[in-house]
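Researcher: Let's try something more involved. This one mixes different molecule types, so please make sure each is placed in the same coordinate frame as the others.
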Amino acid sequence: MEAKTADFKYVYDRPKSLVDVPTHYCPGCGHGIVHKILAEVIDELGIRDDTIIVAPVGCSVLLYNYIDVDGSEAAHGRAPAVATGIKRVHKDKVVISYQGDGDLLAIGTAEAVHAANRGEHFTTIFINNAIYGMTGGQMAPTTMENQITKTTPYGRDPADVGFPIRACELLNTLEAPVFIERCAVYDVKHVLKTKRAIKKGLQNQIEGKGYSFIEVLSMCPTNWGINPVKSAEWVHDVMEPYYKLGNFRDI
Amino acid sequence: MSDRILMKGNEAVGEAAIIAGCRHYFAYPITPQNEIPAYMAKRLPEVGGTFLQAESELAAINMVFGASAAGARVMTSSSSPGISLKQEGISYIAGAELPCVIVDMMRGGPGLGNIAGSQADYFQATRGGGNGDYRIIVLAPASVQELADITIEAFDLADEYRIPVMILGEGYLGQMSEPFSLPEPSGKTFEKPWALTGAKGRKPNIIASMRLTPENLLEEHNLKLKKTYDKITEKEVRYESYLLDDADYIIVAYGTSARISRSAIIELRKEGIKAGLFRPISLWPYPYKELKKAASHAKKVLTVEMSLGQMVEDVRLAVMDDEKVDFYGRTGGMLPESGEIIRRVRHYGS
Amino acid sequence: MRGKPVIDTERCKGCMLCNAVCPENIMGVGESFNKQGLAYAICVNEEACTTCRSCAIICPEAAIKIIKYV
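Model: All components are placed in one shared frame. Result:
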């Protein structure tokens, strides 16, 4: 088979705002997908020079090494407060608080609820993978009933430690937020939907509309103890029925 | 100097912060410093600034982290239990080399304690209640005038050394009204190329205290912080001496305790007893050398505090003579009595 | 041939999500390993590639580019 003509074009390439380095994430981790589509959105909106991200404490603590924009650390759970401080100083910048389920729904519940309730003009990307990843697989507020983790070795027992928390529905009781959507990244269709939601969340900020919240059901193969492809199926089969996907608010 | 006005200490520190160019303030209500947020809520919007009542002191200090990381002059204020909630945030701010000003109007502790003035958080302020090898500058005013003047200095010191600066007062100082003159802005400006402003035309800035790899990266960072701390220790010590030159008996006290000690000294001098006051203003960096020199010719060094004895440990470190150092303190928000100070010093001489 | 995936074999962590989503089922795990000791993904039949980009979209490492011949 003789070589085809040499000229071709890329119909899919790495986003410029995604730093060209290997990540520390495990194979099949949803963070990598969300980082990529976030970088794509930053490129498409042309806001690389105006974006400031706030990283959580958790697997994505090194977020600012991967997205090529100004970045700030935040103490565990406090990203919404740090983002509030940044956005109050730079009203014209696009500020993003990127958080995991321990960060947002355990230690940082108060900061998450109150930033949303104040209608702070930043955008939260909330990665829900139903477990604590960085610390090696402990129960998260979003751990499913009966799910086995390092701290629920016999399966999560709601009679003992309560039920998984649904962040979108929780925040949907608040008046101020302008956009609340739950997405997933377990297949191509849902990755594209997540990208659309993130783009909307950032556009809302650029247009000065208010606070946007995007929850992303994501895979954590290593700590779930199943391979990446099975993990994607687990999100669909077990998490999605409990965490209904879709838009809760779009003002 | 503008003419004299009468203001509560809590309001004076607010106005002084605005004069210093502070346009962002995040705080949570707690007695006895509530007038500060109330004052800033009224005044900051008038100067195009941001006032925000946070959901907790802990959230507030992290908002301070963000605003400071964004390059703004920013302040928070609280009292003892609230300052306890801020300790983790303060450690992060110090580790990330961010400037900010933290006002602490101390109250009786431990725990919920009471709302009277106290000095029982000296250790927390000067030794740090957060984790890791870090320091913060701690300044202790003893009057509303000094509180206002020190606020101007605090913002400059914070920006110059990229460090949190704590203004440590007692509830009494915050609640007390005294005539004073509004300070002038210092006119100093500080470049902040490190700030998060959107990476236009430059590599992204990252504000963080985490340093994972290589293995000694954090040690290198801490040694860099130490260089700053050594420079501050060398250049930024502040203290006041009163009738020290010929003093046989030195009283070491700061803030409200120093005011009470001063009146005791005046009485003692009338009785021909040569007492003098050594008043540390910078509690970190502590004036060890200066106190050691002053104490060298004194017979006795009495430390007076509103606690069970915390600064007295630094006095011991300075004087290095256990026999010479004595302590009198009241705790739980009680005020030391000048009569008791006079009685003790008289006794030294007999 | 319309185009094909270009895989950065050092960045690939062998998660095989591309394999799971490829409509033509032409993404598979190769025989050789990259420096991380992971068996990286390969396109087993580039002729059948429709350049639909599914593999590239799902890839957590942004390790797949898609080229289209013009």
